[in-house]
Design goal:
Strand order of the largest sheet of chain B: 1-2
Radius of gyration of chain A: 20 Å
Strand content of chain B: under 5%
Structural class of chain B: mainly alpha
Number of strands of chain A: 2
Order of helices and strands of chain A: HHHHHEHHHHEHHHHH
Shape of chain A: globular
Largest sheet of chain B: 2 strands, antiparallel
Radius of gyration of chain B: 19 Å
Number of helices of chain A: 14
Number of strands of chain B: 2
Oligomer: heterodimer
Strand order of the largest sheet of chain A: 1-2
Structural class of chain A: mainly alpha
Largest interface: A-B, 39 and 40 residues
Chain lengths: 311, 289
């Protein structure tokens, strides 16, 4: 492939992406509201999965703290939403998540592999149980009402966050920073020896990924009207991005986007009518994917492509 | 005063006995097989619900169910390891990669088992009364079923401990825990031993389930809480150390009982705090190397 076709292919891709974006931006004017709401939920999962992949994809540190970061955003929105304007609330939500992730990142320096996974899960569950206990014994009321925002506004905010997280994921992947992350994932000792400050790189990336989850939580809270610790810190929100990313494949930027979109759509169809069957399906697909598609759908496509080229 | 202390201590020992039983099971699965089985609690839940169904529908005594549930779950666990986890282990490049993928696979198992149970038994909280007469010692009142549960938990863990230390299979399991490759070289059929370990973990869950159903309320979503407790106990006692898990179970049970005395809502929070502090200060646990 010579350089001109390469660049033209690239500009074609950019153009395509831009077109798709414009399409999504004009969508609320020409489709019924329920489709907009469905798309909002799908984008929510895409954002969370993509931001999970920013950190956990290259480093192979599986984080189960997504629910914590999302929940912090939700609670920020519930607490500040009545007094402050929406952009400030969202900024505050993402900032609080960012700070929480920095703290967790600094605390877990020594932990690796399994310890890291269960530590992140425990932190998120600890926050949930503590809030539940606090609300039942201290304030006496569990849950709170959130100021409602118009669903098209929610949609546009989600769309903006999606573009930002896609951009961030792309830039991190392409930069030296992303290279450092990948070498940490390959072998951390070696990465440290060639002069990468593994601690710093890991912590910052972890916090960046939390930043977007917090923002998403803050805006999604306004869609739900009522929230409590069980909704905001639902442990399923920690498991979902892992499955969605693995299903899509973490080897390519579009893997998690695709995986999350497919799953979120299936969930939206099945979850209201057959919640147990949905979770049953969820578990079965998880096992099948881990057994037979360790590199996800993207890995499958890449394999097909390679075989096609060879032929 | 004395009766309160006795009450809290006995309560702690009962919880501790069950925690120890559960943790020993998980310790075998993770310490030897490197499968952090987050669906461990689901096996407990199955045991508990099978017991509930047998007792309320057919009037089978929970202590008889215990003898049925254990072996049945052993076979299920053995088969799951032989098919699912053995395949994953052979596919994985490293033991670390296997630990990650088997954790995710066991999450899959969790969702499957839990939702099957929700379809069969619905989401309601269940309970039944069995041996619920009580007697008092020094003004402290004890229900018979709690003491029977404690007795069974202690007997089962002791027998199991003797099995691990004194039999040939027990020796093979301990060798596999130390170093799977060398054990294989020395003639241990590693795939069989690992599957047996996983099965034994399920066996412990199958024993714990009926005991739990005798003294606590049960529901299909109860599994994860017990899994978490088991993970905490295993880390507390030191990964791979069976003795550590036994001691850790009783320690956590006592702490839980003391916290519950002050505020029942705080016990799970206390466990998480202990766990997080433990991971930060001494991730190798009490008896870990």
């Amino acid at each position: 492939m010579d350089i001109t076709t390469f660049t033209s292919k690239r500009s074609f891709l950019y153009g395509l992406m831009f077109l798709i974006l414009v399409l999504f931006a004009t969508l609320p004017f020409c489709v019924p509201p329920y489709l907009v709401i469905l798309l909002t939920t799908i984008f929510m999962y895409v954002i969370i999965t993509l931001s999970w992949t920013i950190f956990s994809g290259p480093t192979r540190y599986i984080s189960l703290a997504s629910a914590a970061f999302f929940g912090v955003g939700v609670y920020t929105s519930a607490l500040l939403g009545k007094t402050l304007p929406l952009p400030v609330v969202i900024a505050a939500g993402s900032l609080f998540s960012f700070i929480l992730a920095l703290c967790i990142g600094l605390l877990t320096l020594r932990l690796r592999g399994m310890y890291f996974i269960i530590f992140t899960f425990s932190i998120s569950e600890l926050i949930r149980h503590f809030l539940l206990w606090w609300e039942t014994t201290m304030t006496g009321t569990v849950g709170r009402w959130v100021v409602i925002v118009d669903h098209t506004v929610v949609y546009y905010v989600i769309l903006v966050i999606f573009v930002l997280v896609l951009l961030a994921a792309y830039l991190i992947r392409r930069s030296r920073f992303g290279l450092a992350l990948r070498s940490i994932g390959e072998q951390e000792e070696a990465a440290t020896h060639i002069g990468i400050n593994a601690t710093l790189v890991k912590t910052i990336t972890f916090a960046i990924s939390a930043f977007f989850m917090g923002a998403t939580g803050a805006i999604m809270a306004t869609k739900w009207k009522y929230i409590d610790p069980r909704i905001a810190f639902d442990p399923l929100l920690s498991f979902m991005p892992v499955l969605m990313a693995i299903f899509g494949g973490t080897g390519h930027l579009l893997g998690p986007v695709f995986g999350a979109a497919v799953f979120a759509y299936i969930e939206e169809i099945l979850t209201t009518k057959f919640p147990y069957y949905y979770m049953l399906l969820f578990g079965s697909i998880l096992i099948v994917v881990i057994l037979f598609l360790p590199h996800g759908m993207v890995g499958l496509v890449q394999k097909w492509r390679k075989e096609g080229l060879r032929r | 005063m004395l009766s309160t202390i006795l009450d809290v201590v006995i309560g702690g020992l009962i919880m501790g006995g069950i925690y120890a039983l559960i943790a020993v099971g998980l310790s075998l699965q993770y310490g030897v097989g490197r499968v952090l089985n987050v669906s461990h609690g689901e096996f407990i839940m199955i045991g508990a619900f099978a017991t509930w169904s047998l007792y309320t529908l057919l009037g089978v005594s929970p202590l008889v169910s215990l003898v049925i549930c254990g072996p049945v779950l052993f076979i299920i666990g053995f088969l799951i390891h032989r098919t699912l986890f053995q395949y994953l282990r052979d596919q994985s490049e490293s033991i670390g990669a296997f630990a990650d993928s088997s954790l995710l696979a066991s999450f899959g198992l969790l969702f499957i088992i839990q939702n099957l149970a929700l379809l069969i038994w619905k989401a309601d909280i269940r309970g039944y009364s069995y041996l619920d007469s009580s007697f008092s010692v020094l003004d402290a009142v004890f229900a018979v079923n709690r003491l029977v549960a404690l007795l069974f938990a202690v007997v089962i863990s002791s027998v199991f401990y003797i099995f691990l230390t004194c039999t040939r299979l027990g020796k093979a399991i301990r060798a596999a825990a130390e170093d799977p490759t060398t054990a294989q070289v020395m003639g241990v059929n590693i795939h069989r031993v690992l599957a047996i370990c996983f099965g034994l973990g399920a066996l412990m869950a199958g024993f714990a389930g009926p005991l739990i159903s005798m003294i606590y309320e049960i529901q299909p979503t109860m599994g994860l809480e017990y899994t978490i407790i088991a993970i905490i106990v295993v880390v507390l006692g030191g990964l791979g150390s069976i003795t550590g898990s036994l001691i850790g179970g009783f320690i956590l049970g006592l702490i839980g009982s003391i916290v519950t005395y002050f505020d029942a809502g705080l016990s799970l929070i206390a466990y998480y705090v202990i766990f997080i502090l433990l991971l930060l200060v001494r991730p190798t646990g009490i008896l870990g190397k």
